[in-house]
Amino acid sequence: MGNKKVVRDGHIHSPYCPHGTKDTFEMYVEKALNEGLEEITFTEHMPFPCYFIDDKEFQDECAPSKDVMDEYFKDVEKIKLKYKDKIKINSGLEVDFIEGYEEETKKLLNIYGPKLEDGLLSVHFIKIEDQYIAIDWKQGFEEALEKLGTLECVYDKYYETLLKAIKADLGDYKPRRIGHPNLIRIFNQLYPFEYKNTKLLEEVVREIKNRNYELDVNTAGLRKPYCGEIYVSGIFKELVNKYGVNQVYGSDSHTASDIGRDFDNE
Ligand SMILES: [Zn+2]
Ligand SMILES: [Zn+2]
């Protein structure tokens, strides 16, 4: 990417995110214009196909419910129209890969797919035995560490799940961009670890390249208290460059002020 100014933000949430802010679509777009962006995608979390963890309250916080999706897409259409001469706005979703729920996810994608112009496929949950654990909050990460025993096993599990996500058959509307591929490093300052399983990482990157998928170069990690880095980093980043995988910056904004944030940070 070098010194070329980044003019696209491919990962933005919306007022429909249960764990986000109520900042309006207008606020996000106005901030994008202020940042000099030329293209953005709203990638609200896709609703889950069903409850797959026991803690329903927690799961409800992760993604909006199916009931509001019509409104979400309508609002995106409205904002696109309103700003059509100023900025390109894409309608999208951030889709969770939930191991074992591929068919259900495909069914949902077949419903929303015709409305999608862009999108992300992300891994937030890893499956350990029969349990799904969200690794991007501290308690979940620590639970995974306790169950799997070592940081290396936790990282292995994350990248193995990512590999399954990349290979999964999620139908015609499967998103082509892999969200924050190094999310497992979200607590790397609390649990320092230099992951060296180059074989697995290389397989992940190769499979992305083979399918002509893209990567979400996600700057949200810089804002997390125990991360301090972008979610394409280290050995993974070297491999991404080696294979020439397409990269799209994403702020993962849950508030308008974060749009385009840290895009000049390499
Ligand atoms: Zn979110
Ligand atoms: Zn995400």
From TrEMBL:
Domain PHP residues, every copy: 9-220
Catalytic activity from the UniProt record: L-histidinol phosphate + H2O = L-histidinol + phosphate
GO molecular function: histidinol-phosphatase activity
Pfam family, one: PHP
Enzyme Commission number(s) of this protein: 3.1.3.15
InterPro entries linked to this entry: Histidinol_P_phosphatase_HisJ, PHP_dom, Pol/histidinol_Pase-like
Record bears the keyword Hydrolase: yes
GO terms of biological process kind: L-histidine biosynthetic process
GO cellular component, one term: cytoplasm
Alphabetically ordered keywords of this record: Amino-acid biosynthesis, Histidine biosynthesis, Hydrolase
CDD domains: PHP_HisPPase_Hisj_like (cd12110)
Family, per entry: Belongs to the PHP hydrolase family. HisK subfamily.
Full protein name: Histidinol-phosphatase
Source organism of this protein record: Clostridium chromiireducens
